[in-house]
Each structure stands twice: as structure tokens, then as C-alpha cells.
């Protein structure tokens, strides 16, 4: 199944697909933000299976593309964050049966960073009401120090924390606590891309929900039949 493609801005990456469930609505909305270490070569289709599953469960899924980091890709900070904000706010103008009083965001890995960041922004036209980070890069300073994503944090933000302190302060979810909305972090304890300790530390500081899955790695989150995804949808139904 594919969604209806919408453009929310002028850049070629400023597109999102809307997957609508059956029925008249209005439907609760779940914004999906893909990962891939902010690299240009990864795109929104990583989240297609989750979008299909959400639509089958009665959710409208808004699968977002955004400017990433790479040759002529246009991404970096603040551009990448601005795209996520614009994509979410674009929901207000869609001619679709959307229930905008209930808008959650789910992001995987680098997309988890962006979803958590979006949940904390003030003055949004479409505020989020809940957020889920799947193996989320929730602390950009820690990610830089630990080499998460092999230098891509520094490429996103223009350097290490010592040279780009303002960028880290603006972009890192760990710098914007407390959370404005209910949040869940889901993380496998065998994740070798984003260490589970990052979610443990963030959840402790934020006081949010943490589901740590024994034996899981980094990519089970993208499988609609996985226990990692079952954990997410069960939580969403309660929020």
C-alpha cells in the first residue's frame, strides 16, 4: 500500500505520504520519522510497513521525508529540524479526515531524535500529544562523544560540541527537559548502533516510559510484526 503524496515545502525532500484508514474519521494521526543517521541515502520508505500497520489499526499515518546530510541534500541544522516542524504543521491544512486533537510522533534512531525534538517545540500550529523514540538518538552531545552514527552528529550540527555549542543546545532533546507530552522510549539491549544506555539515561532524566527489550538490536523496530512495534502500538492506543 502507498500513501497519497503531499508537498509541504519547496525543497525536493519536502514531501510526506498520508496513509488513511478505512472509515469516515476523524482519525488520530501518527507522524512517522525515519532514521538512517540523517544520511541522504536513507528515506521515508524505511517506515512503509509501519505506516500500513497504523492505517489498518485506524490511524492516519503521516510518513515524513526531510532534508538530510549529503552532497546537495540541503540538510543540517536548523534546516532538518525546520522540515520536521513544517511537515507536522502542514497537517492543519490537509483536506483529510484527521483528528488533530490526537497527534503522536514515532521516530526511529535519528528519526527518534527528530520526533523527540518536535515534541518539545513551543508555538506549534499542530502540537504533538505523545511521542515514541525507537532506539532514539536522544542526547546529541553523548552521541558525539560515543561516536554514534560515525561522525554524522558532527556533520548534522556543524562540528563537535566544543565548536558548535549553540547547535547542540538547540537540537538535542536532552537539553529541553522536562518533556511537554507523554513519551515512550523503546530500545533493544543488544543495539550496536545506538547504545541502550542513552535511552536509560534519558528516561531517568525525563521521567518518561522506557521499554527495554532483551535480545533485540537496532532494526526490529522497523518490522510491523515485531514485539518492538507491538510495544509501540499498545502504548499509542493508551495515549
Description:
- With 239 residues, the protein is of the alpha/beta class.
- It has one domain: 3-Layer(aba) Sandwich (Rossmann fold).
- The chain is built from eight helices and eight strands.
- Strands 1-2-4-3-5-6-7-8 form an eight-stranded mixed β-sheet, sandwiched between helices.
- The longest helix is centred in the middle third of the chain and has 11 residues, at 79-89.
- The radius of gyration is 16 Å and the shape is globular.
- It starts with a strand and ends with a helix.
Topology of this structure?
Blueprint: E1 4-7, E2 15-19, E3 27-33, H1 48-56, E4 60-64, H2 79-89, E5 98-108, H3 110-119, E6 130-134, H4 140-146, H5 152-157, H6 165-171, E7 183-188, H7 196-206, E8 209-213, H8 227-237
Parallel strand pairs: 3-4, 3-5, 5-6, 6-7, 7-8
Antiparallel strand pairs: 1-2, 2-4
Amino acid at each position: 500500500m502507498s500513501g497519497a503524496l503531499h508537498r509541504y515545502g519547496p525543497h525536493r525532500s519536502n514531501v510526506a505520504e498520508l496513509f488513511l484508514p478505512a472509515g469516515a474519521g476523524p482519525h488520530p494521526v501518527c507522524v512517522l520519522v525515519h532514521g538512517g543517521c540523517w544520511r541522504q541515502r536513507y528515506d521515508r520508505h524505511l517506515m512503509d510497513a509501519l505506516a500500513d500497520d497504523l492505517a489498518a489499526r485506524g490511524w492516519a499515518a503521516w510518513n515524513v521525508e526531510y532534508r538530510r546530510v549529503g552532497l546537495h541534500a540541503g540538510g543540517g541544522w536548523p534546516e532538518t529540524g525546520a522540515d520536521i516542524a513544517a511537515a507536522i504543521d502542514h497537517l492543519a491544512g490537509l483536506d483529510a479526515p484527521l483528528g488533530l486533537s490526537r497527534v503522536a510522533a514515532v521516530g526511529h534512531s535519528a528519526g527518534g531524535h527528530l520526533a523527540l525534538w518536535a515534541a518539545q517545540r513551543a508555538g506549534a500550529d499542530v502540537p504533538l500529544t505523545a511521542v515514541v523514540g525507537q532506539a532514539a538518538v536522544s542526547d546529541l552531545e553523548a552521541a558525539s562523544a560515543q561516536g554514534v552514527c560515525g561522525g554524522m552528529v558532527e556533520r548534522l550540527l556543524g562540528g563537535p560540541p566544543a565548536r558548535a555549542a549553540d547547535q547542540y543546545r538547540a537540537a538535542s532533546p536532552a537539553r529541553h527537559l522536562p518533556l511537554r507530552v507523554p513519551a515512550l522510549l523503546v530500545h533493544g539491549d543488544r543495539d550496536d548502533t545506538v547504545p541502550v544506555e542513552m535511552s536509560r539515561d534519558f528516561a531517568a532524566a525525563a521521567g518518561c516510559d522506557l521499554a527495554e527489550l532483551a535480545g533485540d538490536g537496532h532494526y526490529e523496530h522497523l518490522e510491523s510484526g515485531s514485539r518492538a512495534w507491538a510495544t509501540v502500538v499498545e502504548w499509542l492506543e493508551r495515549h
